[in-house]
Design goal:
With 751 residues, this protein is α/β, with parallel strands linked by helices. 18% of the residues lie in helices and 17% in strands. The two termini are 48 Å apart.
C-alpha cells in the first residue's frame, strides 16, 4: 500500500508540474521535444522548483517572448535547437540567472539583440550554430566571462570586428567554420588568452599576413584554417603560438610560404598543408618545427625538395608527398629522420634512373631494420620500367637517361638490400688499377647490358628481370679460394666504397660466361631439389638446397648468358600484411642464412633460379619450405634440438605411464564394485514363491506379515499369483527392523 501511495503521489506531482503536451517522468526534466509545438508551452498551475532541464528541440517554435521562461528560474539547461526561431525578445532569459547551457542551434536567427545574454552570468556553453546571423558585436557577449564553449559555425558572418570577443576571458573552444568571413580584424581575438581550439575552416580568407591576429592566443593548441582561399602566409604569423600542436592549411591556394612563416611553432606536432599549389619545399622552411611528427604535403605541385628540407625534424614519423610532380629525390634526404616510419610517395612521375640509387639504398636499409612501412615509388620513366616499383628494380637497371649522366654519382656503393644482393665488383675498374683492363671490363659490361636488353624484349613482361632485394647485404667468404663460398646477411651498411669503384648486380667474376640453361622455369623444375631449413633461431634461419649438374644438360650451345644465380624469397605466412623479401646468391652457393627475422613468426621460404638475369613468372611451389622462428631470447642449435626431442619423448612416455596407472586403478575399482553388488544382491525368486512353501530358515514374522498384507491388498481377479507377479528388491529390505521405514516403503510399492 505504501508503494502504491508513492507512485500515485509521483504521478500526481507530474501532472501538476508538467506543461501541456509534455512528459515529466522525472521532476527535474521537462521533456517537450518533437511535440509539434508552435510556441513555448504555458507552465502548469504549479511549476516544479526542481526542474533543471527544459527540452524543446524539434518543434516549430518561431518566437521567444519575455514571459516564456519567467517561472523556470532554476533551469540549468535549455534546449531550443531545431526549431524555427526568428526573434528572441531582449528580456527572454532575464530570470534564468542559474542557466549554464543554452542551445539555439539550427534555427532562423538573423539577429540577437544586444544584452539578451547579459543575465546569464553562469553560462558556460552557448550554441548559436546554423542560423542566419551576419553580424555579431562585443555587446552581445557582455557579462559572459564564464563561457567556455561558443559555437557560431554555419552562419553568414562576413566580418569579425575589433575586440568582438573581449568579454569571453574564459573561452576555450570557438567554432567559426562554414561562414563567409573575408575580413578578420587584427585584434578580433584579443583577450582570448585561455582559448585552446579555434576553427576558421570553410571561410573566404585570402591571406594570413598580420602577426598580431593570433598574437594573444598563447594557450591555443589547435588552429584550423583549411578550405579557405589563402594564397599567402606571411612571416611571423604564428610566432606567439608556443603551445600550438595542430595547424591545418589544407585545401587553400597557397603557392609559397615565406621563410619565417612557420617560425615560433616549436610545439607543433601536426602540419597539414595538402591540397595547395606549392611548387617546392626550400631549405630551412621547416627547421623551426622541432617536435613535428606528421607533415602532409599531398596534392600540391611540388617538383623540387631541397636535400636538407627535413634534416632538423628529429621526431618526424609521418611524411606524405603523394600526388605531386616529383621525379627524383636526393638519396640522403631522409638520412637524419630516424623516427620516420610512414613515407607516402605515391602518385608522382618518378624517373627511375641513377639518381634514385641512393633513395633505393636508404629505403632497403630502413626496411631491413623494420623502421619503415612499404614505400610506393612507382616508375614512370623510362618506358621499360614503367609501372614497376623501385623496390623491385635492379640497381643495374637504374642507368642515366639522356644527358643526365653528370647528375649521377660515379661512385656507387654496394646496394643495401633487405634480402641481400650479391654485389660483385667489375674487375679492372678500381681507381689506380691497370688501365689496360678497363676497356675489357667496360666491354664485358656492355655485353651484359646487351644480353639483358635482348632478354627483356623477348619476354611478355618487360620488367621481369627486376630483382628486388630486401634483407641486408650478402657478404662472400673468400678466405680460402679452394672452398665453396658461403653467404650471410649483414644487418649494417657496407663500408664506404673507394673512389672510382663500379659495381654490378648478379654478375660473374669470370670474364667468359659458362653455358647454362636458358629458361629459368625449366631450371627450377628439373635442377633444384631438396630445399630445407635448419638452424632456426628467433631471428635467423639457414636455407639449404641442392642442384643437379646443369652444364651437362644444356640444350645445345649456350647463348653466352651469365651463369645461374639463385633467388631466395621469404615472406610471412598466414598474415594479411604481405611483404616479400629476397636474397640473391652466386651460382656456387647452396645455402643462405636469413637474418633479422621476427621472433615467433611463421615464414614461407622458396628457392628459384635466376637465368640470364630473368626469373620464372610462375612461383616454384615445389621448392618452398616453411619455418617458425623461436620466441625472443630462445636460440636453437644441434645439441639443443636433440635435448628438446629427448624432453618431448620423455614427456610423452611419462604421460602414457600415468594414463596406464589411472586406467588400471579405475578398472580395479569398477570390478570391485561389481563384485560387491553381485554378492549383496539376492533374488526374491530364490527366497519366496507363492507356489511352494517359504523356506523356514528365512521366515520371520515381519516378512510374512509384509507379504500377507501385500497379497491381501491385491484384487481378487489376479489370484492366484503367477510367475510374473514375483517382485525383486535387495535382501537388506527384509532384514530392516525399522518398522517406520518398512511401512513407508510398502505403501510406495502398494501404490
Amino acid at each position: 500500500r505504501s508503494h502504491c501511495r508513492v507512485v500515485c503521489v509521483c504521478v500526481f506531482l507530474g501532472l501538476v508540474y508538467c506543461p501541456d503536451r509534455c512528459e515529466c517522468q522525472h521532476p527535474q526534466h521537462l521533456m517537450c521535444t518533437n511535440r509539434g509545438l508552435r510556441a513555448v508551452p504555458k507552465p502548469a498551475a504549479r511549476v516544479s522548483e526542481e526542474a533543471l532541464v527544459f527540452s524543446l528541440g524539434g518543434n516549430f517554435i518561431g518566437n521567444i517572448s519575455a514571459f516564456d521562461f519567467t517561472r523556470y528560474s532554476n533551469l540549468v539547461r535549455l534546449n531550443l535547437q531545431y526549431n524555427q526561431i526568428q526573434t528572441i525578445q531582449p528580456k527572454a532569459f532575464e530570470k534564468l540567472s542559474k542557466l549554464e547551457e543554452l542551445y539555439l542551434g539550427h534555427n532562423l536567427l538573423s539577429h540577437i539583440p544586444a544584452g539578451t545574454f547579459q543575465p546569464l552570468k553562469k553560462l558556460t556553453i552557448l550554441y548559436g550554430n546554423n542560423n542566419e546571423m551576419k553580424k555579431i558585436t562585443p555587446e552581445l557577449f557582455a557579462n559572459l566571462d564564464n563561457l567556455v564553449k561558443l559555437r557560431l559555425d554555419g552562419n553568414s558572418l562576413e566580418v569579425l570586428q575589433d575586440s568582438v570577443f573581449k568579454s569571453l576571458t574564459s573561452l576555450h573552444y570557438l567554432h567559426l567554420e562554414y561562414n563567409q568571413l573575408q575580413h578578420i580584424h587584427r585584434n578580433a581575438f584579443s583577450k582570448l588568452t585561455s582559448l585552446r581550439f579555434l576553427n576558421l575552416a570553410h571561410n573566404k580568407q585570402a591571406a594570413v599576413r598580420s602577426a598580431l591576429m593570433f598574437s594573444q592566443l598563447r594557450a591555443l593548441t589547435t588552429l584550423l584554417l583549411s578550405e579557405n582561399q589563402i594564397q599567402h602566409v606571411g612571416n611571423h604569423v604564428f610566432q606567439n603560438l608556443k603551445k600550438l600542436s595542430t595547424l591545418s592549411l589544407s585545401n587553400n591556394r597557397i603557392s609559397r610560404l615565406d621563410s619565417g612563416a612557420l617560425r615560433g611553432l616549436s610545439s607543433l606536432r601536426e602540419l597539414l598543408i595538402d591540397g595547395n599549389e606549392l611548387e617546392e619545399i626550400p631549405a630551412g622552411i621547416l627547421d623551426s618545427l622541432e617536435r613535428v611528427e606528421e607533415l602532409d604535403f599531398s596534392r600540391n605541385r611540388i617538383s623540387q625538395v631541397d636535400p636538407s628540407a627535413f634534416s632538423q625534424l628529429k621526431h618526424l614519423k609521418v611524411l606524405k608527398l603523394k600526388n605531386n610532380m616529383l621525379t627524383s629525390l636526393s638519396g640522403d634526404i631522409f638520412g637524419l629522420n630516424n623516427a620516420l616510419y610512414d613515407l607516402d610517395l605515391h602518385g608522382n612521375n618518378w624517373t627511375c634512373d641513377c639518381r634514385l640509387e641512393e633513395l633505393k639504398r636508404w629505403m632497403t636499409a630502413a626496411h631491413s631494420q623494420g623502421k619503415l612501412l612499404t614505400v610506393f615509388v612507382q616508375c614512370h620513366h623510362p618506358a621499360t620500367l614503367r609501372g614497376k616499383y623501385l623496390d623491385y628494380v635492379n640497381a643495374s637497371q637504374l642507368q642515366p637517361l639522356g644527358n643526365l649522366t653528370h647528375l649521377c654519382r660515379s661512385q656507387a656503393g654496394p646496394e643495401e638490400s633487405r634480402g641481400g644482393g650479391v654485389l660483385v665488383k667489375v674487375k679492372g675498374e678500381e681507381t689506380g688499377g691497370d688501365s689496360r683492363s678497363r676497356p675489357a671490363a667496360e666491354a664485358a659490361r656492355r655485353r651484359a647490358k646487351g644480353r639483358q636488353r635482348s632478354n627483356v624484349t623477348s619476354r611478355a613482361d618487360p620488367a621481369s628481370t627486376s630483382s628486388p632485394s630486401r634483407a641486408g647485404i650478402l657478404e662472400k667468404n673468400t678466405t680460402d679460394p679452394n672452398t665453396e663460398p658461403t653467404y650471410t646477411t649483414s644487418t649494417s651498411s657496407t663500408s664506404p666504397v673507394q673512389s672510382g669503384e663500379r659495381f654490378d648486380l648478379l654478375r660473374s667474376d669470370q670474364e667468359e660466361a659458362l653455358p647454362v640453361i636458358t629458361d629459368p622455369c625449366v631450371f627450377n623444375r628439373h635442377f633444384i631439389s631438396n630445399v630445407s631449413v635448419d638452424h632456426v633461431t628467433s631471428s635467423t634461419a639457414t636455407v639449404y638446397w641442392t642442384t643437379r649438374d646443369h652444364h651437362s644438360h644444356t640444350p645445345g650451345p649456350g647463348p653466352g648468358l651469365d651463369e645461374v644465380h639463385y633467388r631466395i624469397l621469404f615472406d610471412r605466412f598466414g598474415t594479411q600484411d604481405r611483404f616479400p623479401r629476397y636474397v640473391y646468391t652466386r651460382g656456387t652457393a647452396r645455402s643462405v642464412t636469413l637474418r633479422e627475422l621476427s621472433s615467433d613468426v611463421t615464414y614461407m621460404v622458396c628457392v628459384e633460379g635466376v637465368v640470364g638475369g630473368s626469373v620464372c613468372q610462375v612461383a616454384p611451389r615445389d621448392h618452398c619450405a616453411g619455418l617458425v622462428t623461436l620466441p625472443e631470447g630462445l636460440n636453437r642449435g644441434g645439441v639443443l634440438t636433440s635435448d628438446l626431442q629427448l624432453v618431448t619423448v620423455a614427456t610423452l612416455a611419462g604421460n602414457a605411464v600415468l594414463l596406464l596407472v589411472i586406467g588400471s586403478v579405475w578398472l580395479g575399482r569398477s570390478l570391485k564394485r561389481r563384485l560387491q553388488r553381485r554378492k549383496s544382491a539376492v533374488h526374491v525368486r530364490h527366497m519366496y514363491s507363492t507356489r511352494r512353501p517359504f523356506r523356514p530358515t528365512m521366515t520371520t514374522a515381519s516378512v510374512s506379515a509384509d507379504f500377507t498384507s501385500y497379497q491381501s491388498s491385491r484384487p481378487a481377479r489376479l489370484s492366484p499369483l503367477e510367475e510374473g507377479d514375483l517382485i525383486e528388491f535387495p535382501c537388506e529390505r527384509f532384514m530392516d527392523s525399522n518398522s517406520v521405514r518398512r511401512d513407508s516403503d510398502m505403501q510406495r510399492f502398494s501404490d
